[in-house]
Amino acid sequence: MALTDIKVRTAKPCSKAYKLTDGEGMHLLVHTNGSKYWRLQYRFGSKQKLLALGVYPEISLADARTRRDEAY
Question: What is the pTM of this model?
Fold first, then answer.
């Protein structure tokens, strides 16, 4: 299920870092201190890689999706 702006905005920190998935390998990583990072997981040469797309709220959900599409 795709993320919404409300889910991203209201994501609260927990005792462990967790991910909110959006689709096509993109997710929002919420750290224990409350910081939120956009990440893109992909495979290249049969190895899994991780690409940083930006920090929320500087990069909105729509901007992160645009960057994900540009990366593919």
Answer: 0.92
